[in-house]
Amino acid sequence: MYARRLDLSVGALPKSLAVADIDGDKRPDVLVARATGNGALVQISPNSSGMITPILLNGSIGDTPYGLVVADFDGDGAVDAAVANFLGGNVSALYGSGFATRSDFGDGAHPIALVAGDVNSDGRPDVLTANQVNNSVGVNLNLGNRMFGARVDYAAGAAPGALILGATDGARPSRLDIVAALPSLNKLRILTGQGGGTYSDTQFVDLAVGKSPAGMAMADA
Ligand SMILES: [Ca+2]
Ligand SMILES: [Ca+2]
Ligand SMILES: [Ca+2]
Questions:
Q1: What is the DSSP string of 62-100?
Q2: Per-residue pLDDT averaged across 132-148, rounded?
Q3: Is the pTM of this model over 0.85?
Q4: 45: CA distance to ligand 3 center in Å?
Q5: Do 79 and 93 touch, CB atoms closer than 8 A?
Q6: Are residues 153 and 199 in contact, defined by beta-carbon separation less than 8 angstroms?
Q7: Closest-lying ligand to the alpha carbon of 23?
Q8: Considering every ligand atom, which ligand is closest to the CA of 124?
Q9: In the predicted model, what is the mean pLDDT of residues 117-142?
């Protein structure tokens, strides 16, 4: 039962959120990305007396961020964030205290969503983007030292709107496949992992689903 509802003001255009323990107190916090021109990242955590006051962490995270994901990209044990800058046409990774250190990559696409996962099995989380305008999925491999490699695009039908990663082939559980929602086609497209973080424009499976899939989750059903 959810008997109590609490509305919080986080500022204009809250577009995406993620949950992680940001302040290291072992309790989950919520991060909200606002899709303003400079973007903004807001933390929501209860204080010691249980009051919740949203905190602006960084007021310049990217141009119109439409997607947010958290992972430890630099491997220092602290949670980092990345946002998909739809109008800016790139991805911003945000590191360090208050997510104050920003590093952009993946120029030239218009990502509307992103997901993090280790697609080449090197222990470092990589970033994949749904490039809605470009009709592609972009793979940005994490090179370490807060660097990402050049984006590699794979055709993904029409206007992918959301992504998840998972092993859809039980015979190859170590290979992460990409599942892209294609709302304009009422389909999901599975791009099957070819190993080493590579995919193929021609190795895919399309699944017809209900009208306009906008979000997904995966589990062993
Ligand atoms: Ca916490
Ligand atoms: Ca980190
Ligand atoms: Ca990796």
A1: -SSEEEEEEE-TTSSSS-EEEEEETTTTEEEEEESGGG-
A2: 97
A3: yes
A4: 30
A5: no
A6: no
A7: 1
A8: 3
A9: 97
